Fold this sequence. Notes:
The protein is mostly beta strands. It is built from 8 helices and 38 strands. A hairpin with a 2-residue loop joins strand 23 (300-307) and strand 24. The model is unreliable at 358-412 and 642-662 (pLDDT under 50).
Amino acid sequence: MKIKCLYCIFAIFFSFSLNAQQKENEERLVRLIKAETAETFENNLFNIKRITGNAQFLHNGALIICDTAIWDVTKNIIDAIGNVKIVQDKTTLSGDRIHYIADSSLAQVRGSIVELLDKDSNRLRTFYLDYNTKDSIAYFYNGGSMLDTAGNVIESLKGYYNSKTKEFKFLEQVEMTAKDMVLKSDSLAFWSETNRVDFLGAINAWQKDGFLSSKTGWYERNKETYNFEKDAYILNSKNEIWGERILYQKDSSIAQLWDNVQIVDTAQSIIMFSDYAVYKDNTSQSKEYSTLAKLYKRPSIAYYSMENKVADTLFFGADTINYKAIQLNFIDSATVSLSNERYKNTKRDPIKEMYGKPEATMVQDSVPIAQDSSIIAQDSSIIAQDSSIIAQDSSIIAQDSLALKIKPDSLTQQIPIDTTLIRIIDANKNVKFYRSDFQGICDSLKFNSIDSIIRLYKSPALWNEENQFSADSIQMFMANNTLRKLDLMSNSFVIAPEDSLHYNQIKATDMVAYFTEGDLTRFDAYGGVTLIIFIAEDSILTTMNKKECKVMTAKIKNRQAQRIKYLENIPSDAYPVIDLKPEQKQLKGFKLITEEKPKDRFDVCDRVISPTKREEISKIILPQFQFTWRLFHIEPKSPIEESRQIEKELPIKINEESSLLE
């Protein structure tokens, strides 16, 4: 029984060995399937055949075609010359000569031009190409370039093509063209069936109006969609954009950005931040000049400026922020009409409208509102000059005769289209803003540069130094880069601390503050005005003065209230401070909310500001496409020169001004 078992095991082993040997012999077998002539040179050491005519060999399913071949049957090597080709699985290789080592399934294709043509008509050219007929993989080195039917090019120092998976891989010194774009990368993979590029290393890309880069990513040619990941970056003539990931749709100019997003608009002196954003730049699409940014996940904006040669930055944040820059002729007529009406109202003077010249009808009070802690009065007013949330040159409407009064449907060919660029901001929920000389909060904020009015809604509050301003809504009008007028609308209240326990107060239906060259020069209150003022003697608070009237106006100069005038019903009472109960020291509605006041810019925006890369980008060597020129004798169509020109013209601002932002 043991002998039979051993015999069976031996028979099975012998059978396996025989099959393996037969398979190996079959794999070595090269078949000559066509030729015009064949000569044999044979002895005990070698067996060589000379094949001429339209010769064809078959091995591993690959057809080798040539004019002439020397076939070393003993070594299983074919040397083919003249119109040589290898055809396998709809992939064609051509060159001047082929050295084919059948036992290794290796075809070494050489010539003045070696070309690989895949089933999608992508043409890969090189001077040195090795092809494995068993694995259907072609390797090229010392430079190669691939040209598709649309004229797009990918070149590199070396790489390979897998005929089974339809994958090209380009390694080292990779340069590529896409639609209106040229790229450089460490390496990339191109999948011909899906027309997709996977970037396997750092990427630099240029287009007519900008530059893109990242550490990795992918590109879908059919959809013109780019995905840039790890330190992704976009630069164009107006903006610099950062994000850990940027998904960019070229045809629609829409980019989605994730994590540590920073968008710099140098023309408007704005930096936008968030952890997710949708950004659209339509400026390259001629009809409608517009830029749109929707900011989510801890969004904030920094507006940086220089005032009287002093640098400062306004930061504000909210739950969501929408920013838009669009030509005036593309804004709907209702928005334009409302903005024009608001602008007209900034020119009104209610006191003069109601009473004529105030000086003829008002009673003057010689007691100033306050000392150094004036209720409303610091040179660094509530909203200092040029500090609007978005307001560089914000006086888009500077004259009463503004052409915006004309309705769009009444425009004729004689009236030119107004293409003024209008900036629009809409911030919602938990709005906070901080600047060194003023701070504020509200539930929502709106701004457009048609009327240049910043509107704060739902429990807004402002702080200037220690002074607190609040109302149902607040409007700030900006012109020529300075604050001109501040409207506290409905249930307005001003609180100014005299010391840690006593507060000067003004309460009224509405209040208006006027500014000249950034300095507060006049303050009015309307509709049931009530004031509480604490008066000191020898630096000790002794008296609380309480006044009531219908209208109050104060002239301000050098941070001090020079004179105060009251109109109608002017009861005035004085109370010794020592006799007052705590509740008597406060007007109804008094609410001190200093704990909600942003303490510094990090309460509003805790982002680290990335320095500009403009100068660094300008020094990167652009793609030269030297292999493409040598192999195809063409210069790839690309926006190289336009890109370089734009880079030269880009202003280098952020490095110079980055100190403003901290």
